[in-house]
């Protein structure tokens, strides 16, 4: 079933259109930066964006920092929200289940498909950003490597390793979103409601983070440690928030996937 | 092939299916008859493990459902409340996709299987247009093709002729009878009496969630013990058959008589001309109306059962 879902994903025109759209924003940013030569002052704007003016090959990281807070979660919410509710609305869910495809297996296949989509998006965004950054932005390639956020310099292998870690961390954050959306997708009838519900949770979380009165449970909000991947580029790496972020996302994944399974396994499929 | 015992489904306070004991035997063409809203679809969904029963048990091919779904369902083809397919894909691609799902068909023979299924339902020559552009009838045929994909031993079809034109209905009926002759047990639900009457060997009637009737069609259509007689000499016939004529409508008479052949001899012997003579049989319609009373979508406050219409249309 996993392979069926993956082939559906890759053959769908919508997949590629969505990736193209997500990819468009960082590319636009790169073009604007190149045309105007007006970088944000160091310490302001999205992470890494000031650094790319000198070294364009850092732009993939900047691109990631641009898409991670809003675009990627939006894509995940829509795709995972559609997973079950979309099949149900289309009427194909009942025909999947009488094939028969086990309900737990279907959930797993959908989750894998959503994560494959995220990975694909991240890879496309990263690759485009690398090409665009190298072509358009600063070419003061430091042969010794890049500069960390803390100001020290990183060797290229170090930078690559940390970038991969950052990607893994971002994927885990998206897995948390996918788990929430998948759960909602088993609850509501409309894929739109599942996607919007997920976005509602994420937006509430982001809002509550800015509120001092919500201090007591701030550490448990799903978006709390999303941008902690920036800490990977400090020297030395600042692990505290990253560790907490991993634990928190893992908890969200476990709780919501269990809830999705419990709800879906005993659900009457009446649509 | 299908056996349920005390199958019950409640949605909140509404009892959709109430203690249904279905018995579908191997080789049957079983007609599951009931008005819209009588619980047919919910029953079908419970058989297939889509809806979980509140109480009671269901068996498919001798195995309990939904517990044995994984072993049983590959041998069952089904159509539940209208066909469904991925609208952006062609019919062929849809079938190939469904064939890959679950236990999955053998890959090497997949395109042959898909082609055969499309041929069977009369979509063999369909082009690569997406299902989005299919007519309702084509979608219905595609849904049937999907049910036939794995040469099932049992077909569970919910309203299979919905949306088809008369020619299409005839094609599908012929197809189902052909499959049945080749050994497939067919379970068809419908709200159309005529459809069931033309195709089925056994009939179950669901009314407000209860199975009010389950019998061989041939037994239901037994003679009523009356004979319909058409004669230009109605007056003389009445005089001859003194007391046995139950009803007269112009030159058409309803005569109480056990044997039509004997009656014919008697009439002709007495010089009464006979234009038409045949034994009256119970019709499915009259039996069903008698068993169900008011229609199940009749929610009038005094839902008094209407008087049984014994005569039917004769």
From TrEMBL, chain A:
<feature type="transmembrane region" description="Helical">
    <location>
        <begin position="164"/>
        <end position="185"/>
    </location>
</feature>
<feature type="transmembrane region" description="Helical">
    <location>
        <begin position="106"/>
        <end position="132"/>
    </location>
</feature>
<dbReference type="Pfam" id="PF12730">
    <property type="entry name" value="ABC2_membrane_4"/>
</dbReference>
<feature type="transmembrane region" description="Helical">
    <location>
        <begin position="192"/>
        <end position="211"/>
    </location>
</feature>
<feature type="transmembrane region" description="Helical">
    <location>
        <begin position="16"/>
        <end position="38"/>
    </location>
</feature>
<protein>
    <submittedName>
        <fullName>ABC transporter permease</fullName>
    </submittedName>
</protein>
<keyword id="KW-0812">Transmembrane</keyword>
<keyword id="KW-1133">Transmembrane helix</keyword>
<feature type="transmembrane region" description="Helical">
    <location>
        <begin position="246"/>
        <end position="265"/>
    </location>
</feature>
<feature type="transmembrane region" description="Helical">
    <location>
        <begin position="58"/>
        <end position="85"/>
    </location>
</feature>
<keyword id="KW-0472">Membrane</keyword>
From TrEMBL, chain B:
<keyword id="KW-0547">Nucleotide-binding</keyword>
<dbReference type="GO" id="GO:0016887">
    <property type="term" value="F:ATP hydrolysis activity"/>
</dbReference>
<protein>
    <submittedName>
        <fullName>ABC transporter ATP-binding protein</fullName>
    </submittedName>
</protein>
<feature type="domain" description="ABC transporter">
    <location>
        <begin position="2"/>
        <end position="233"/>
    </location>
</feature>
<keyword id="KW-0813">Transport</keyword>
<dbReference type="InterPro" id="IPR027417">
    <property type="entry name" value="P-loop_NTPase"/>
</dbReference>
<comment type="similarity">
    <text>Belongs to the ABC transporter superfamily.</text>
</comment>
<keyword id="KW-0067">ATP-binding</keyword>
<dbReference type="InterPro" id="IPR003439">
    <property type="entry name" value="ABC_transporter-like_ATP-bd"/>
</dbReference>
<dbReference type="Pfam" id="PF00005">
    <property type="entry name" value="ABC_tran"/>
</dbReference>
<dbReference type="GO" id="GO:0005524">
    <property type="term" value="F:ATP binding"/>
</dbReference>
<dbReference type="InterPro" id="IPR017871">
    <property type="entry name" value="ABC_transporter-like_CS"/>
</dbReference>
<dbReference type="InterPro" id="IPR003593">
    <property type="entry name" value="AAA+_ATPase"/>
</dbReference>
């Amino acid at each position: 079933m996993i392979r069926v879902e993956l082939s559906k994903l890759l053959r769908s025109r919508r997949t590629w259109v969505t990736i193209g759209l997500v990819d468009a924003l960082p590319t636009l940013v790169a073009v604007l930066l190149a045309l105007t030569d007006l970088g944000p002052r160091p310490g302001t704007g999205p992470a890494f964006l000031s650094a790319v003016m000198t070294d364009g090959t850092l732009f993939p990281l900047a691109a990631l920092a641009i898409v991670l807070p809003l675009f990627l979660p939006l894509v995940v919410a829509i795709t995972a929200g559609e997973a079950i509710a979309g099949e149900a609305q289309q009427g194909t869910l009942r025909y999947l289940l009488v094939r028969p495809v086990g309900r737990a297996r279907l959930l797993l296949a959908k989750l894998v498909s959503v994560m494959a989509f995220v990975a694909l998006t991240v890879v496309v965004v990263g690759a485009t950003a690398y090409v665009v950054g190298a072509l358009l932005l600063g070419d003061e390639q430091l042969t010794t490597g890049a500069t960390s956020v803390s100001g020290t310099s990183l060797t290229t292998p170090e930078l690559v390793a940390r970038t991969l870690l950052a990607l893994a961390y971002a994927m885990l954050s998206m897995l948390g979103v996918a788990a929430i959306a998948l759960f909602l997708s088993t609850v509501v009838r409309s894929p739109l409601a599942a996607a919007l519900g997920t976005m509602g949770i994420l937006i509430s979380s982001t809002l509550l983070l800015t509120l001092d009165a919500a201090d007591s449970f701030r550490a448990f909000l799903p978006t709390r440690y999303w941008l902690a991947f920036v800490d990977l580029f400090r020297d030395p790496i600042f692990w505290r928030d990253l560790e907490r972020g991993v634990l928190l996302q893992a908890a969200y994944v476990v709780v919501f996937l269990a809830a999705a399974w419990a709800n879906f396994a005993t659900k009457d499929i009446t649509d | 092939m299908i056996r349920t015992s005390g199958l019950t489904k409640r949605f909140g306070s509404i009892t959709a299916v109430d203690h249904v004991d279905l018995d579908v035997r191997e080789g049957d063409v079983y007609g599951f008859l009931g008005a819209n809203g009588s619980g047919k679809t919910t029953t079908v969904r419970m058989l297939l493990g889509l809806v979980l029963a509140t109480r009671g048990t269901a068996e498919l091919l001798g195995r309990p459902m939904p517990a044995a779904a994984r072993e049983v369902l590959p041998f069952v083809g089904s159509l539940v409340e209208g066909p469904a397919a991925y609208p952006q894909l062609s019919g062929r691609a849809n079938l190939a996709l469904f064939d890959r799902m679950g236990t999955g068909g053998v890959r090497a023979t997949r395109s042959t299987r898909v082609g055969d299924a499309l041929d069977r339902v009369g979509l063999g020559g369909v082009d690569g247009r997406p299902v989005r552009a299919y007519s309702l009838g084509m979608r219905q045929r595609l849904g049937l093709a999907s049910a036939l994909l794995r040469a099932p031993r049992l077909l569970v079809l919910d309203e299979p002729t919905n949306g088809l034109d008369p020619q299409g209905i005839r094609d599908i009926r012929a197809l189902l009878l052909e499959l049945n002759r080749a050994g497939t047990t067919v379970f068809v639900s419908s709200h159309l009496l005529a459809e069931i009457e033309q195709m089925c060997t056994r009939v179950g009637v669901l009314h407000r969630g209860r199975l009010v009737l389950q019998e061989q069609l041939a037994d239901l259509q037994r003679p009523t013990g009356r004979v319909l007689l058409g004669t230009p000499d109605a007056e003389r016939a009445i005089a001859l058959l003194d007391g046995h004529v139950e009803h007269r409508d112009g030159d058409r008479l309803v005569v109480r008589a056990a044997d039509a052949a004997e009656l014919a001899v008697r009439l002709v012997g007495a010089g009464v001309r006979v234009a038409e003579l045949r034994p009256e049989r119970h019709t499915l319609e009259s039996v069903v109306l008698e068993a169900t009373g008011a229609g199940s979508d009749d929610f009038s406050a005094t839902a008094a059962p209407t008087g049984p219409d014994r005569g039917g249309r004769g």
